[in-house]
Specification:
- The structure is a single chain.
- By secondary structure, this protein is α/β, with parallel strands linked by helices.
- The protein has one domain: Alpha-Beta Barrel (TIM Barrel), CATH 3.20.20.
- It has 17 helices and 10 strands.
- The strands form 3 sheets. It has a 4-stranded parallel sheet with strand order 1-2-3-4. Strands 5-6-9-10 form a 4-stranded parallel sheet. Strands 7-8 form a two-stranded antiparallel ribbon.
- The longest helix is centred in the middle third of the chain and has 21 residues.
- Belongs to the metallo-dependent hydrolases superfamily. Adenosine and AMP deaminases family.
- This is adenosine deaminase.
- Its EC number is 3.5.4.4.
Length: 379
Amino acid sequence: MSTLEGFEAQLRDLPKVSLHDHLDGSLRPSTLIELASEIGHELPSADPESLQETFRSNANSGDLLKYLEAFAHTTAVMQSAENLRRVAREYVEDLAADGVIYAEVRWAPEQHLAGGLTLDEAVDAVQAGLNEGTEAVEEQDGVIAVGQLISAMRQADHAEEIVELALRHRDAGVVGFDIAGPEAGFPPSRFASSFTRLAQQMLPVTVHAGEADGIESVRSALVDGRAQRLGHGIRVAEDIALTSGPESRSKTGDGGEDLIEVELGPVATWVRDRQIHLETSPTSNLQTGAVSALTGKSPSEMPHHPFDMLYQLGFNVGVNTDNRLVSGVTLSGELAALAEAFDYGLAELADFQVNAIEASFLGYEEREVLAAHILEAWQ
């Protein structure tokens, strides 16, 4: 076992928080193969390890279309209540095996109606699976809680309907709302009335922004989307000017250049000063080209990620997986990779867990209890 693998194993036993993880990007390869066989859907491979490697290779190809190919396969098998329930149950069990004690899982019910389900039936099926998974973890003396984030697809223009769906289920497992899908060309301003409705009903919102589009997308998420958190959000770094020279040194997220002065633009200032949580997904951000868009380096590697620069400047950052199957990652693995890239110890990695739980859509008392538990365990 390598040093990195040993550290990842150590992290697996510590309590962690996941706020940005897509249900349809996190199936077990073996489950995907079994369900695809049942419905006659052809996959790139019928061997779990080979299938995982195909998805991982596509994700690392630098081609976003190849990265997205996996979702045509996963959503194809998630069109019945039975299959949604199973995928959700296993999702919880797999998170718990990685040491996650609180998670918010996002998914778009409108993409799971081909088998005849209604939107409400789809949400109920996923919630039933989440409940079963939680109970199974508790039976093994584990602890985990999972809430649903209901996503509307930006390109589909069903936001008003999906908002009402989320509101109907807010007391039955739904903890918040999200918009996903193509970021460029579909700004949150297109759905301003839907976000107003959510604000009036006081259901919290996270918005995918600052991943596949730049700083104006982040601005729209904050202004039009009233986002309490930013999904990824790393391109807020476009609004940060660095002046380098020999007088002082700091990590910049791009090789540790010398740093004299940092100037934050208005959007970056707002995000930092208001402590808007950034739901970063380091490996996914590299794979989808979000980091390359910032650095001009293609392919980019973990030391190029702006995560450390943002952390050093006081931004509220968290660590997530985005799509565990597609990217071939775990939350423990992501933390270990960041620790290797930026020389973090357990104290820094614990900070990211506390940031995440405090930015979660749980109630105040629940957040306080879990934050205390996390700090005690990580110490």
